[in-house]
Amino acid sequence: MATGLIFGFIALAIAGGVAISYVAGSAAVLAFVATGFGNYLAILPQRIFSQIDVFTFLSMPLFILAGELMTRGGVTRALIDLAMLMVGRLKGGLGYVNISASVFLAGVSGSAVADAAATTRTLVPAMVDRGYRPDFAAALTAASCVIGPIIPPSIVMIFYGALMNVSVAAMFAGGIVPGLLMAVFLFAYNFWAAKREGHPGGAGVELPPVWPTLTRAVPALLIPIVIVGGIVFGVVTPTEAAALAVAITVILVLVYRLLDRSRPAEALRHTISEGSRAVESAVMLTGSIFMILFAAAIFGYLVGIMQVPQMIAETVTALDLSATSYFLIASLIMFAAGMVMDVTMALVLMVPVLIPAAVTAGADPVHVGVVSCLNLTLGLISPPFGGILMVVSAASRVSYLRLSLTILPFLGVQVALLLLLILVPDLTLAVPRLVGLID
User: Fold this and answer.
1) What span, in angstroms and rounded, lies between the C-alpha atoms of 173 and 281?
2) With 0-12 CB in 10 A as exposed, 13-18 as middle and 19+ as buried, what is 273?
3) Which is it for the CA torsion 357, 362, 365, 369, positive or negative?
4) Which of 132, 139, 185, 290 is the S-S candidate for 407 at Cβ 3.0 to 4.6 Å?
5) Residue 286, domain extent
6) What pLDDT, in 10s, does the model give residues 234-273?
7) What's the pLDDT band for 19 if we cut at 50, 70, 90?
C-alpha cells in the first residue's frame, strides 16, 4: 500500500512538471517513513554531504565551462571544419563529418547534450541542403553525440568513479577503444545508408580552406591531449586537467576573436561577454546536476540501510550466475531505466544497487564502469524520453515522433556494440592495462 502511494506521488509530481530532483528527494524521504526507517532521517544531511563531498566532483563544473566556452568561442566550428576537410568528399561525406566532429568534440567537452546542441545547429541544415532527409540527418547527429561521454574526458565517468570509488584515470583510458569503436560502427552504417539512399559526395564537394582550417583546429586538438594524457599518465588529477582545459580554451577563444576582428579591444570585450554567458550557463547546469546528486544520495542511503546490494549479491551467489551472465541482466535493467530516466539520476540510483554484485562475482570494476556509463548514455537517444532526441528535435525542427522512429536503426547498431563490449572485456581493458593503470 505504502509503495503504491509513493509511486502514485512520483507519477503525479512528474505529470505536474515538478523537477526530477525534487520528486526523487521527496519520494526517498517518504520511503524512509514507509519502510520504518524514519528515525534515520535525523542524520540524513550529514550522510548526504559526506557522499557528495568528493574532490573529483570539482572537475565537473570546469569541464562543463570548457564545453560552453568552446561552443560559444568558435572552437566547435573549427573542429567541424577539420572533419569536413578530412572526410567531406567521401560518398555520404557529411555523415562521416558528423561522426568525426563528435569524436573531436568528445575529447574536449565530455557532454553529449552540449555536443548535440552545437552540431545540430551547424550540421543538420548543411546536410539537408545537400540532399539528406531531415530525419536521417537529425538521427545521425543524435546517435553520434553518444560518443561524447565515452571518449575522455567524460562527465558521466567522473560521476561513476567518485560514486563507486573506481579510478577515473582508468575509466578514461578504458573509454578510448569503445568510443572509437562506436565511431567505426556508425561509419559502417553511414556507408550502407549512403549506398542505399544515394547520399551526395565526391570531388565536387566544396571544402573549407586548408591552411586557415588547420591553423584553428590543430591547437584545439591540444586540449584532449592535455586532458587525456595528463590524467592517464598521472601528471594531473581530473580536476587539475579540467582547469587546464578551461585555461587553454580561454586562450584559444581569445586568439580566434583576434583573428576575426581587426581591433584587439573589441575582440577582448566580445570574449569577455561570451565568457560571462558561458559561466552563467555552466553554473546553472552544475547546480541542476548537484541537485540531482543530492536527491539521489537520499535514496542511496536508504538502499544501503536496507542492504539491497548485499541481498542481490547473495541471490547471484545462490543462482550460481557468472559475472558475465549477471552483468547482462543488470545491463538490461539499466538500459530500461535509461529509457525513462535522466542519465545522472539513473546512474546514482541504479549503479550502487546493481553493480557491486557484478564486481563481487568477478567482473573488473573498470570494465563494468565503462560499459555501464555507455549503457545509461544510450538512454539519451532512446524513446520515449531521450534527452538528446529532445534537443535535436527542437534544434532541427524534426518532429520528436519521426526522429524517435528514425533513430531506431542507429540505436540497434549501438546496442550491438554494447553487447560486444559486455562479452569481450579486453576491448575495454586493453588501454588501461597498456598504460599500467590496472593489472
Assistant:
1) 29
2) exposed
3) negative
4) 139
5) 37-434
6) 788 778 888 888 888 888 877 777 666 556 667 677 777 7
7) low
